[in-house]
Structures are given as structure tokens and as C-alpha cells.
Design a protein that fits this description.
This protein has 229 residues and is of the alpha+beta class. The chain has one domain: Ribonuclease Rh, Chain A (Alpha-Beta Complex), CATH 3.90.730.10. It is 34% helix and 16% strand. A four-stranded antiparallel sheet has the order 3-2-6-5. A two-stranded antiparallel sheet has the order 1-4. Strand 5 and strand 6 form a beta hairpin. It starts with a helix and ends in a 10-residue tail after the last strand. The structure holds 2-acetamido-2-deoxy-beta-D-glucopyranose (2 copies).
Length: 229
């Protein structure tokens, strides 16, 4: 009896500290902009700081998550007032920045696969389908072309893979954490996701010690794997 009570209490605690994001809830848990921008196509050749690497072979996938609060606070005020994600920031916590096919032998950022194919602008149906997980059409377009094309055949395959990986993580309720440090976030992730292990997750804070990004690494069969050699 007592042990049943304890497990019920344990379950309730577990359910309040984490939110398992099933696919249906990810898709529907945010407001959508009434109109998308007209042109959100991406062309790495028009960017002075971009390059192409079609030679590197991807050996693992890195899921990069971004903390909305810090992202928005780091933007100039006018952008905070205009970016949909920031105007609606209470709906967006830990969103997806991208899924990066990486080469484990790479010894510099340029040695990873990048900008493998030019692709057409994705349609509004696809963008809106994944908007709650990645709340910006430019981001959805550019991550597909910059990273997705280096391993995935279609944008649908790329975005469905991201949603499956993101949706199968138990995400801590970071906004309610009392002591937000990289070590505490990491250990909470490890507790909530029993098959995850320390070398497969990296938590980075910004120069003001605010949570910036969380990277989680998967092998090509989508099992957790260490992020670096
Ligand atoms: C939008 O793009 C997706 C993926 O390329 C495609 O499967 C779908 O049919 C398109 N939908 C419309 C309405 O054009
Ligand atoms: C916050 O957590 C860190 C471990 O990440 C610990 O060293 C520190 O003492 C904690 N601070 C408070 C105020 O609880």
C-alpha cells in the first residue's frame, strides 16, 4: 500500500518535472503567424561567411536545441519586437535549432558536411507543420539546405526525423529550475532520459551564464552516441 502510494507520488512528480512531447502536441502547441514571409529561400553562395563541404561523410547526427529566452534577450530590441518567436516567447521554450549530420573525424568546423545541395523554397504547408518545433521560416529553410541535404533525401524525411528525436526526449521544465547551471541541466536530462549518457549531451551557457544551447548526439541509427572522439 505504502509502496503503491510512493510510486503514484513518484509518477506525479515525474509528470510535473518533465513533458514528453508527442508528435501531435509538438505540432499544435504554439500560435502560428498569419502569414509567412514571401521569400525565405536560402542560398549559401550569397553569404560571405558560408562555405560548402560535400566531401565529408556524416558519421553521426547532432540535435541542437536552443533556449528561446536567451536567444530573444540576445537580439536587439527591434528584433525582439518583430520576431514571431520572441513576441510569443512564452509559448516557445527549448526549441530546435537544427539537426546536423557531423563527421566524427572532423578537426575543424569546416571539416563537417555543409551546404550539400541547393533546394527550392519549402512550401507553407511544410513550414507550418514544423513551426512550433522550429519557429522561424528562414531557420526551417536554411537548416534543411545547410545541414539536412548532407544526409537526407527530402525535407519531409529531415523534418520528420527531427520531430521523432525531439518528441522522444523528456525535456526538463527548465523555466522552473531554481539553479540553472550547465551541470544541473545536464544531470536533469540524464535523470529524465535513462538511456542518455553524459558524453552524448553538451550544454552551453552564454557569456552571462544564461542557457544557450543543448546538443544531443545520435548515431546514424538514431541511438544516443558520444558527441566527440
Ligand atoms: C509541400 O511540400 C511537401 C514536401 O516537399 C510535399 O510533400 C507537399 O505535397 C507540398 N504541399 C503542397 C500543398 O504543395
Ligand atoms: C547550483 O548548482 C551547482 C551545481 O551545478 C552547485 O555547485 C551550486 O552550489 C548550486 N547553487 C545553489 C545556490 O544551490
Amino acid at each position: 500500500m505504502v509502496s503503491t502510494m510512493m510510486s503514484v507520488i513518484g509518477l506525479l512528480v515525474f509528470m510535473t518535472v518533465c513533458s514528453r512531447l508527442d508528435a501531435a502536441s509538438i505540432k499544435d502547441r504554439c500560435p502560428l503567424p498569419s502569414n509567412l514571409k514571401n521569400n525565405y529561400d536560402y542560398d549559401w553562395k550569397s553569404k560571405s561567411h558560408e562555405w560548402q563541404n560535400t566531401k565529408a561523410m556524416p558519421t553521426f547526427l547532432q540535435l541542437v536545441l536552443s533556449w528561446t529566452q536567451t536567444f530573444c534577450e540576445s537580439l536587439p530590441q527591434y528584433a525582439q519586437n518583430t520576431e514571431f518567436q520572441c513576441r510569443n516567447r512564452k509559448h516557445f521554450g527549448l526549441v530546435v535549432h537544427g539537426l546536423w549530420p557531423q563527421a566524427s573525424k572532423a578537426n575543424s568546423v569546416r571539416a563537417h558536411p555543409r551546404n550539400c545541395r541547393n533546394e527550392k523554397q519549402l512550401n507553407a504547408t511544410l513550414v507550418k507543420r514544423y513551426y512550433c518545433m522550429m519557429p522561424d521560416e528562414d531557420l526551417i529553410q536554411s537548416q534543411w539546405e545547410k545541414h539536412g541535404t548532407c544526409y537526407f533525401k527530402t525535407a519531409t524525411e529531415y523534418y520528420q526525423t527531427i520531430e521523432n528525436l525531439y518528441g522522444s526526449l523528456n525535456i526538463p521544465d527548465i523555466a522552473s529550475m531554481k539553479n540553472v547551471t550547465a551541470a544541473n541541466i545536464k544531470s536533469t536530462f540524464l535523470t529524465l532520459n535513462p538511456t542518455l549518457f553524459a558524453s552524448a549531451i553538451q550544454v552551453s551557457m552564454d557569456y552571462e551564464n544564461r542557457l544557450k544551447e543543448i546538443k544531443i548526439c545520435y548515431d546514424l541509427k538514431q541511438k544516443f552516441v558520444r558527441c566527440s572522439l
